[in-house]
Write a structure and sequence with these properties.
Elements: E1 4-6, E2 13-20, E3 25-32, E4 42-47, H1 57-64, H2 72-84, H3 90-104
Antiparallel strand pairs: 1-2, 2-3, 3-4
Length: about 110
C-alpha cells in the first residue's frame, strides 16, 4: 500500500491518496480538522474501501478535485504501482472473503 499526502487548497483539510494492493484500488481520504484542537478530524471523503472501486488516476483526481490537485509525479507513481501490482496474496484474498461473508450475514 502506498500513501501520499497532498497539499490541500482548502484550509483545515488533509488529503491522502494511494494504491491499496489487497483491494486493487486507488483510495482517497479527505479529513477536515475539528473546530478545537481536541476535536477529532471529520472524514469528508473516503473512497477506495471496496475491491476495484477506483481503478483510474483521472477518476481519483475527479473525486479529490474540490480539495487538491494530483501532482503529475504522484499520478505517475500511482499508475506505476497499479501496473506492477500482483493482486492480493492468498491470505489477503481469504480475509476479504471473510469480511464479505460477515457483511452478508448482517
Amino acid at each position: 500500500m502506498s500513501r501520499f499526502q497532498l497539499i490541500s487548497n482548502v484550509p483545515g483539510t488533509t488529503v491522502h491518496v494511494g494504491w491499496d494492493n489487497p483491494l486493487q484500488t486507488f483510495f482517497a481520504h479527505v479529513q477536515k480538522a475539528g473546530r478545537r484542537a481536541t476535536d477529532e478530524p471529520q472524514t469528508v471523503l473516503w473512497i477506495g474501501t471496496e475491491p476495484s472501486e477506483c481503478l483510474d488516476v483521472q477518476d481519483l483526481q475527479e473525486h479529490i478535485l474540490p480539495w487538491a490537485k494530483l501532482p503529475p509525479g504522484t499520478a505517475a507513481e500511482l499508475e506505476r504501482q497499479r501496473d506492477k501490482a500482483r493482486g492480493p496474496t492468498q491470505l489477503q484474498a481469504q480475509m476479504l472473503n471473510v469480511v464479505r461473508l460477515s457483511q452478508y450475514r448482517r
